[in-house]
Amino acid sequence: MSMEPEPALTDAQTKLLDWLDRHGAVSPSQMLAQTELAPREAWDVLQGLAQLGLVVIRDDPDSPDGQLVVPIPRYSNMTQQNVPPTKGMRPPGRNPRA
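RE: above sequence
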């Protein structure tokens, strides 16, 4: 089973994704107020990330500007090898009834 290679991202895309990873879902105007990107550049970057499937831009009536930018968790962020299991969870491969 082969996995598709991660698409090559521009510096602006990488910076924006890193920012979204730290802050989570935000309105586009909130993101613009807290990043150094110009509004048109930021919107172009967001559209490119949405086309790559790395963010979702959706309508949100509770957002000040009617939209919400939602980052999609990246595989590299979801695989952390040294995270202990939470209480009540058994490590994989261990069956207490065996």
